[in-house]
């Protein structure tokens, strides 16, 4: 963790920590019981748990500059296509996802809400198992957010379901897994592979 993140440990917002306590507990349990598929993911799992232990408000946007987020990769039943959003702020193609909200009952529920809101598909329902962790610094117009500790889930959706573009996106479209967008291809390829393995597609 960075010095900026560590410095936040002494300035926890008690009200925020209390409001998000149920999500902090759920994230801790989910990560503690998750069996990481490789050494890199295991290091991230350990780092996330350390972050949560040191930051009672570490799942909230209003908490430390680095905080947990949840995302959902929408994938076709045969695993050959994924539905992506052209993120308005980042100007790149990603899976659906974002910050946790107080009304989310669980970490995977946050991923479900984000998936449904950003895709316009009410049937998006991610499997309640973590498929991948991804920690990344933010660049651009993201306010006080400096780093996202993303917890990623996946949902199978029929390819014929028509998505809608939300205000957060420039576009929403299906992409072949063998022809993912440049710019985020490396990251998305790893995520698709993790999702396929977790869902046995």
Describe the structure concisely.
The chain is globular and about 45 Å long. It has 6 helices and 7 strands; from the N terminus they run H-H-H-H-E-E-E-E-H-E-E-E-H. The N and C termini lie far apart (about 35 Å).
Q: What does this entry look like structurally?
A:
This protein is of the alpha+beta class. It has one domain (3-199): Alpha-Beta Complex (Nucleoside Triphosphate Pyrophosphohydrolase). The chain has helices at 3-7, 14-19, 21-33, 39-54, 107-119, 185-199; strands at 66-75, 81-87, 93-94, 96-99, 132-137, 147-156, 169-176. Strands 1, 2, 3, 4, 5, 6 and 7 form a seven-stranded mixed sheet that branches. Helix 3 packs antiparallel against helix 4 (39-54). The termini are far apart.
> Mean pLDDT, nearest integer?
92
Please name the fourth-level CATH homologous superfamily: Nucleoside Triphosphate Pyrophosphohydrolase
Question: How many helices?
Answer: 6
Report the sheet-strand fraction. Answer: 15-25%
Biggest sheet architecture:
7 strands, mixed
SSE string: HHHHEEEEHEEEH
The CATH topology corresponds to: Nucleoside Triphosphate Pyrophosphohydrolase
Q: Rg from C-alpha positions?
A: 16 Å
CATH class: Alpha Beta
- Judged by helices, strands and strand pairing, the structural class is alpha+beta
